[in-house]
Specification:
The complex is a heterodimer of chains A (129) and B (119).
Chain A lengths: L2 E6 L8 H14 L3 E7 L20 H12 L3 E4 H6 L5 H6 L11 E4 L2 H9 L2 E4 L1
Parallel strand pairs in A: 1-2, 1-5, 2-3, 3-4
Helix pairs in contact in A: 1-2
Chain B lengths: L8 E5 L8 H11 L4 E5 L20 H5 L10 E4 H6 L11 E4 L1 H9 L3 E4 L1
Parallel strand pairs in B: 1-2, 1-5, 2-3, 3-4
The chains are: A alpha/beta (129), B alpha/beta (119).
Chain lengths: 129, 119
């Protein structure tokens, strides 16, 4: 059995990479592989915004990631620098920069790029979507 | 160039630089953790290698960021010779720490990589 890390770089608001990645993650977990983490980089960090409301009838991506993480104990990590640039902040960063509100959705965490370095060392496969 | 047997991470940049140069941040972070990283510029990614101003006020010019790569152990930046020719770029305008490779050779390098990231 192999260990995987997913690197997401595309915005959840365009394209279908998040849907593909979710399908891929569910499939690899069902096959008995391990998903160590999902790391969100560049515009992919927008997935962690806590105030998203999808168009009626569409699958809520935020909820789909949260359910996957909760069911399989998969860390959902947003690059902290990329997230701060885009206004996705947890309580700590909100207070540090005196921002009006915490905007990070539950189930997600802010993490440094060292996590990606660890992923490259520890995972058998790092797949970018 | 890293030996064929050495584990390495390859980063392929095929899009022109944007304001925040986030692909370069990832490369520097990986290199800072002593991971063996190779960088290949293909297609519009070659525009990273041209002298230019920062893409936003008080930002960093792409070449200024790339010039730090050797300090982190990323000694040579490879670019696709085929794309350089197709784009009509003069090799004299490209930094001295960059080197051409054919598309086929880049493909072989990627085949020997443990991880490949594209931006």
């Amino acid at each position: 059995m192999a260990t995987f890390t997913l690197l997401m770089t595309q915005s959840p608001l365009s394209g279908s990479s998040h849907y593909l990645a979710l399908d891929f993650a569910r499939t690899l977990l069902a096959a008995g592989h391990s998903l160590q983490r999902v790391f969100f980089y560049q515009d992919a960090v927008y997935v962690g915004l806590n105030g998203q409301t999808p168009i009626q009838g569409q699958q809520p991506l935020l909820q789909a990631w949260q359910e996957l993480a909760a069911a399989h104990q998969v860390p959902l990590q947003l690059c902290i620098a990329n997230a701060l640039r885009r206004g996705v902040v947890d309580t700590t960063e909100q207070q540090r920069y005196n921002l009006p509100a915490e905007t990070l959705a539950s189930g997600f965490e802010l993490a440094g790029l060292g996590e990606m370095a660890s992923a490259c060392q520890e995972s058998d496969r790092v797949i970018r979507f | 160039m890293l030996s064929a047997s050495e584990p390495r991470i390859s980063v392929v940049i095929h899009t022109a630089p944007s304001a925040d140069l986030e692909p370069a941040e990832l490369i520097l972070a990986l290199a800072a953790f002593d991971l063996p990283v190779q960088v290949f510029f293909t297609g519009n990614g070659l525009f990273w290698l041209l002298p230019q101003e920062a893409r936003k006020p008080n930002g960093k010019a792409p070449l200024k960021v790339l010039s730090a790569f050797p300090l982190y152990g990323v000694e040579t930046l490879f670019y696709c010779r085929d794309d350089q020719s197709a784009l009509g770029l003069e090799t004299a305008t490209l930094p001295e720490y960059s080197a051409p490779l054919s598309a086929a050779e880049i493909g072989r390098q990627l085949q020997h990589s443990t991880q490949v990231f594209t931006f």
